[in-house]
Amino acid sequence: MLCGGKKSYFAAALCIITITSMVTLSYLRLQRLSHLPKIIQESSKCRRKNTNSTITALKDNRTFIISPYFDDRESKVTRVIGIVHHEDVQQLYCWFCCQPDGQIYVSEAKIDVHSDRFGFPYGAADIVCLEPEHCDPAFVSIHRSPHGNTDQLPRFEIKNRKAEPFSVDFTVCISAMFGNYNNVLQFIQSIEMYKILGVQKVVIYKNNCSHLMEKVLKFYVEEGTVEVIPWPINSHLQVSSKWHFSMDAKDIGYYGQIAALNDCIYRNMRRSKFVVLNDADEIILPLKHADWKTMMSSLQEQNPGAGVFLFENHIFPETVSTHVFNISSWNTVPGVNILQHVHREPDRKEVYNPKKMIVDPRMVVQTSVHSVLRAYGNSVSVPVDVALIYHCRVPLQGNLPRESLIRDTTLWRYNSSLIMNVNKVLYQTVLQPQK
Asked: Which controlled-vocabulary keywords does the entry list (predicted)?
């Protein structure tokens, strides 16, 4: 017998450990084998057309595919960013077509629903499939079965296949623009502040906005600063503009913000040194440095191995203003003039200030809104004397008198460049003379 020999407690314990290890290793080996790609078809070519939609519903209407990305940080896999129903999620398979021989490989997917759903039934998910060893597939289809007709399945391009030099240092991800968004002046001011601080690209997941805002987006797209990702999530699910299910019992929270943020990280993983996750009414203001590049160089030097940098949110209520920088031409533009709002709410005892992030995207696996869920490096909370988030919005402490607010004019350090740049954009978009 395997466990023969002296009848002692030590021998019995050793026997149990040995058998348990053997069973565990066998189980893990079988699990990996079950996920290995298998050839199911021989074909002369991959026939299907690519799907160009940002959000694609599978036939079960419980699974929505956003985009697949090549990820070789642990093993050679295709990681599909998607949205699933956390209870009704079905087994899924990746169908890879390998050219030029046309062999179709099917790989069983591991479905990892992100932990931060905030009570909503639908949430972001990673659909992860091992790729064929001797093939670098350019496209993948997702199906509920390992059998079927490949010609009837939507096909998605696998992004990030090729490693390339960084094209930009900083990319800001804004998700999602919805509710007929029309805060035009503050949006332009935020974009111009990002550019002053060192941003080269702003990615916006747009559900809808006003006609005037469309003109501004068109200008920035043509300039090369903004990339607009269509985000028609309300065509597929009942969406909430609230962050928690208890506030608004819909299918998914805040217009699927978490799924969009994860897609934005992977979309920019190979092209941007850093990715900034914040909203359009938020600006990470450095206090000890002139711009983000010098700030991040210093923070990385002080925190080797860190890949996530968290900045504290501070509210500058739009209800409390100063008469300085009351620029008459700006008064005709819808939205908030941030230069007039330089009083911030004080911290409240035992109330957590939410944070937003600048991340090294290659060190992030999954993100939420205010923290990462999985990453390879450490997370660092940046002290408020180094930088803070200027967040101009409706107050959270609306009953406080003006005297209780903290006057903080850090933003005014940039006023000359900001006013000049904002005027330039306004006179090419909003303030154009009518023909």
From this structure: Glycosyltransferase, Membrane, Transferase, Transmembrane, Transmembrane helix
Residue 234 has pLDDT above 50, yes or no: yes
6 pLDDT above the threshold of 50: no
Beta bridge partners of 367: 372
User: Residue 383 and residue 355: Cα distance in Å, rounded?
Assistant: 12
- What does the alpha-carbon distance between residue 432 and residue 435 come to, in Å, rounded to a whole number? 9
Q: Where along the chain do its domains lie?
A: 42-157, 168-430
Q: How far is CA 265 from CA 89, 107, 171, 177, 367, in A?
A: 24, 25, 9, 17, 9
Gyration radius of the chain's alpha carbons: 25
Is CATH 2.60.40 the classification given to domain 42-157?
yes
* CA neighbor of 109 nearest in space, from 134, 145, 56: 145
pLDDT of residue 386: 98
Bridge pairing between strands 168-177 and 156-157: unpaired
pLDDT in tens, 377-399: 999 999 999 999 999 999 999 99
Residue-wise pLDDT for 150-179, tens only, equals 777 889 999 999 888 899 999 999 989 999
**pLDDT tens digits, residue range 366-381?**
999 999 999 999 999 9
The answer to whether residues 276 and 310 touch, using CB atoms and an 8 Å cutoff, is: no
SS3 content of the chain, % helix, strand, coil (to 5): 25, 30, 40
Identify the architecture of domain 168-430 in CATH: Alpha-Beta Complex (3.90)
Q: Hey, which bits of 115-267 come out as E strands? A: 122-130, 139-143, 156-157, 168-177, 201-206, 226-230
Phi, psi values for residue 75, rounded to 5°: -150, 170
Which pLDDT score is estimated for 105? 92
